[in-house]
Write a structure and sequence with these properties.
- This protein is mainly alpha-helical and 497 residues long.
- It is 67% helix and 5% strand.
- The protein contains 21 helices and five strands.
- It has a five-stranded mixed β-sheet with strand order 2-1-3-5-4.
- Helix 17 links the parallel strand 1 and strand 2.
- Helix 3 packs antiparallel against helix 4.
- The longest helix is centred in the C-terminal third of the chain and has 32 residues.
- It is elongated.
Length: 497
Amino acid sequence: MYLQCGQLLWQGQLPYVDFLDLNPPLIMYISMIPALMSKLGGINLALAGALFTSFLALFAFMLTAGCAKFVFRRMTEEEKYQPALLATALFTPVILNGLAMFDFGQREHLYSLFLLPFFLLRYGRYLQYFSEPPNQSEIDSKKTQSSERILAVLVGLSVGLMLSFKPHFLLAPALLELYWLARYKKPRLLLSPELLVAPLPLVLYLGSFFIMPAAIKSIYFGEIAPLLVKGYACFNIVKDVVVNMVWRFSITAYFVSLLLLLAIPKQLALRAPLAIMLSAALALIELQQKFWNYHALPLYLWEAFILLLAANVLCRALPGKTKKALAYGALSICFLALQGGCFLFHDLVEKNWLRPWDDYLAQNAQAGDSALLLDTSDTPWFKSALRFDLKPGSRYLWLYAVPMLQYQIDNGKAQEKEKAKAALEALFANLAQEIDNRKPKYVLIKRKEAFGMNPDLDFYRFLLERGLAAPLSQYDTVKDYGDNLLLVRKIENKKQG
């Protein structure tokens, strides 16, 4: 969906004025890059998005490798653990990318990838204070100092950009810096290049709100932000079986990781920092209270890092080259099994993901056709929209506001209920007018278990009763999929017939 938002921005449309979503605009701004790649390169927007995210993942990987080298220069008595730390640093993002699966490119995914090099860089800053003095001749060379400054600036700017996605993301690095400040009492290290430049993306992003058109600020701060505060809790309950299975795995791995911290040598001084990052990642999930799969990605990052580091350290302790070879072989097999399992799971879900409307659209849809989504979730519709290059049929990209307003009606105080009822009536009145004016070719309607609504609610009937009966009478139901309906505008249906 945000890839399409990037396209709309290039077309001169304004967020929250010409198209509506509930998230802050940063992800839309960043999505302008793959949208431009798609336009200039003549490639599918979905492919452009995947290539752009892959480039970011590769860039984060290079920063991670550079920060691992930064750490090694400051190791003395810990040098024997360099191979273990290197393998851990390089394998962890690869595992994270595999575990991301359908959430490849989510904000939590990008945040995790760029948080790892920041962690390693800050660890390297403090390393000299709990070990023997490092070899200063190598560190003090002008070439090394210059390259390390460039690395620090790149790490700081990238992690600063990632922190701008969500205020919750500040929790882990803030706790980490507080720990190191209390532990080593070296406040001058807070003036390191990476920390000096990290706030710049956040400051620029916040500054962009001051120069936004008044219409954007009025809608976002006057309507969307208050709606989030009062009604976002409607999405808190998730009953999906796959989600529950994922959380059982994640929480079990959290406690296992805490135990594995004991296997990390004390002289590395990584137990407390890793415990902080691990627990902060779990806190992020609890703070957001949605328990959506991608919220677990930062937790996966530190679980994988701890598991790999502990395994590498334990392998090193085994006597004999044969046993070490067997141990590393077993680790490699486990790694390949994990990656293979992720891709098989991805393939299984993809093959069974309910997008039955794709068959009809493949035969009848043309690039540039407009389609209206009447659903309280954007999943999995927008994958189809990208595949067939369908344009939004309304400024309401998805009906996120409906369950949020209904939540206020069902749970709010008397005054809030009246305001929410009026807002809901206005929303449907505007939507009905847009259907009449824009005349989208296709309408996809959620019928059962609309996200955030009463699971027993017939959402199609709910829509009809709130003013969409007349505009939707201009459409024929061409496919009834049980949970969803696909409608085609009558004049278009006659042409196809």
